[in-house]
């Protein structure tokens, strides 16, 4: 598991800092602390907005007719809906496995992985809409625009200077 704080890599796991693991968990715990009270106070609206609507199970059907793979599969009937749901879950599983097997090393890599996961979810959701894909694009671009500037090479890392050419 790896997170980035102020341009300094904080990691945890084999041979890595335990403080880094705590810091990363704190970040996730902070997000959970913001969501959990609302999920406990009003679980119905959260379930309807986060789960039912994207799966096409909400009280209202989306008027968007985006030709995304999940929606096209869901239009094939109940078997197509279950196939779309299965592919959606497999996509989520693939992203989760990639995070465990090869954790992102910095904020840009983490945002890229999140963008891939969101793009898969939006593409494969039975009631996905094309406009949702703006969020993964924003994540991928924004982290690159706001990330720390590239550090110049240190003197020891610089390639050796070429000897001046002698003119005949």
In terms of topology, how is this protein built?
Elements: E1 2-5, E2 8-11, H1 18-41, H2 43-52, H3 69-74, H4 78-101, H5 107-124, H6 134-146
Antiparallel strand pairs: 1-2
Widest beta sheet: strand line-up: 1-2
Approximately how much helix is present in the residues? 55-70%
For the biggest sheet, the summary is: 2 strands, antiparallel
Number-wise, the strands total: 2
Averaged pLDDT, please? 74
What is the string of SSEs from the N terminus onward?
A: EEHHHHHH
What's the alpha carbon Rg, rounded to whole Å? 22 Å
Overall SS class: mainly alpha
Low-confidence stretches: 1-21
How many angstroms separate the termini?
A: 59 Å
Global morphology: elongated
Count of helix runs: 6
Percent in strands:
under 5%
Tell me what you see in this structure:
It is built from six helices and two strands, in the order ββαααααα. By secondary structure, the protein is mainly alpha-helical. The chain has a domain at 64-148. A two-stranded antiparallel sheet has the order 1-2. A hairpin with a 2-residue loop joins strand 1 and strand 2 (8-11). The longest helix is centred in the first third of the chain and has 24 residues, at 18-41. Residues 1-21 have low confidence and may be disordered. The chain crosses the membrane at residues 79-102, 114-142. Keywords: Membrane, Transmembrane, Transmembrane helix.
């Amino acid at each position: 598991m790896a997170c980035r704080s102020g341009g300094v890599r904080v990691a945890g796991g084999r041979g890595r800092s335990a403080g880094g693991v705590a810091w990363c968990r704190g970040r996730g715990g902070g997000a959970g602390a913001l969501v959990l009270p609302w999920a406990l106070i009003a679980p119905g609206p959260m379930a309807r907005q986060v789960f039912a609507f994207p799966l096409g199970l909400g009280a209202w059907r989306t008027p968007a007719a985006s030709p995304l793979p999940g929606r096209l599969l869901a239009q094939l009937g109940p078997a197509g809906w279950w196939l779309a749901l299965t592919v959606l879950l497999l996509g989520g599983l693939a992203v989760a496995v990639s995070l465990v097997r090869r954790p992102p090393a910095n904020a840009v890599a983490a945002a890229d992985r999140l963008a891939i996961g969101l793009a898969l979810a939006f593409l494969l959701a039975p009631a996905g809409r094309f406009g949702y894909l703006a969020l993964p694009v924003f994540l991928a671009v924004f982290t690159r625009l706001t990330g720390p500037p590239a550090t110049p090479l240190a003197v020891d890392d610089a390639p050796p200077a070429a000897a001046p050419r002698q003119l005949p």
